[in-house]
Design goal:
With about 220 residues, the protein is an alpha/beta fold. Helices cover about 55% and strands about 10% of the residues. The chain has a 5-stranded parallel beta sheet, with helices on both faces. Helix 3 packs parallel to helix 5 (about 120-135). The structure holds thymidine-5'-phosphate. Thymidine-5'-phosphate binds near residues 48, 109 and 114. The site of thymidine-5'-phosphate (TMP) has 11 residues, from helix 4.
Length: about 220
C-alpha cells in the first residue's frame, strides 16, 4: 500500500465480496467490476483461494475431494499460504500502483469457514491474519447473504461438488452465523446484501452499496 507520506489518493481501494455457496458471487463480482470500470476506475479482479498460478494450485489442493481427510489446521494454513502469495504477487503491488482490487473472498472467509464452520475458533484465524496482512484490511466488504437451504440448492444444482460443497447443513449454518457476526461487529466495512432474490434484484443492492462507498471515498480524495 501507499507509504507513510503518501496521500489517500495515491493508493487504490481494496474491495472484497463474500457469501455462502450459491449466493451468485461470481456474477456479482463481474457486474461490480464492470460498474467501477464505467466510472473510469482502474480495477483488478481476482479471487481467493487462488489469484496467482501457485495460489491456484493451492486452491486445487483445498477443493479436491480425496480419501485422506484434510486436517482443519492444515486447511487454515493452506488458505493463508495462498493468501500470502496472492498479497505479495498481486494485491499489494496493484494497490501500491493506485489500482483498485476487487477480490472474490478474502480473510473474512477464513473466519466464517475455518473459524466458525470448522469450529476452529476465531483466535487462530486472527493470529494468522495479523501475521500475513496485519497492516492491510479491505476498505469495503460486500456480504451476500441468503438462507442456507436456498444457497445450497443453487450450488448443488451446478454439477460436481467440491470438498466444501459436500459439507452438512450444520457446517453451513455455522458459516452463515459466522459471517453475520462479522458483519454485526464491523458494520461500516461489511455491508450485507440480501442475495435471496433474483440476479437483477441482488445486482441493484450490490451497486447501491458500491455507489455509497464511491461517494464516501471520493470525499476522502480517493479517486
Ligand atoms: P468459492 O466458492 O468462492 O470458489 O471458494 C471456494 C471455497 O473455499 C468455498 O467453499 C469457501 C472456501 N474458503 C474457505 O473455506 N476459507 C477461505 O479463507 C477462503 C478464501 C475460501
Amino acid at each position: 500500500m501507499a507509504g507513510p507520506g503518501a496521500k489517500a489518493s495515491d493508493r487504490g481501494r481494496f474491495i472484497t465480496v463474500e457469501g455462502s455457496e450459491g449466493a451468485g458471487k461470481s456474477t456479482h463480482v463481474a457486474s461490480l467490476v464492470a460498474h467501477l470500470k464505467e466510472q473510469g476506475i482502474d480495477v483488478l479482479s481476482t479471487r481467493e483461494p487462488g489469484g496467482t498460478p501457485l495460489a491456484e494450485d493451492i486452491r486445487a489442493l483445498l477443493l479436491a475431494r480425496r480419501e485422506e481427510p484434510l486436517d482443519g489446521l492444515a486447511e487454515l494454513l493452506l488458505m493463508f499460504a495462498g493468501r500470502a502469495q496472492h498479497l505479495a504477487q498481486v494485491i499489494r503491488p496493484a494497490l501500491a500502483a493506485g489500482r483498485w482490487v476487487v477480490c472474490d473472498r478474502f480473510t473474512d472467509a477464513s473466519f466464517a469457514y475455518q473459524g466458525a464452520g470448522r469450529a476452529m475458533g476465531m483466535e487462530k484465524v486472527a493470529t494468522l491474519a495479523k501475521l500475513v496482512h496485519g497492516d492491510l484490511a479491505p476498505d469495503l466488504t460486500l456480504y451476500l447473504d441468503l438462507p442456507r437451504e436456498v444457497g445450497l440448492a443453487r450450488a448443488r444444482s451446478r454439477g460436481e461438488l467440491d470438498r466444501f460443497e459436500v459439507e452438512n447443513d450444520l457446517f453451513f449454518d455455522r458459516v452463515r452465523r459466522g459471517y453475520l457476526e462479522l458483519a454485526a461487529a464491523e458494520p461500516e466495512r461489511i455491508r450485507t446484501v440480501d442475495a435471496s432474490g433474483d440476479l437483477d434484484e441482488v445486482r441493484v443492492g450490490v451497486i447501491a452499496v458500491v455507489d455509497a462507498f464511491l461517494v464516501r471515498t471520493s470525499g476522502q480524495g480517493g479517486r
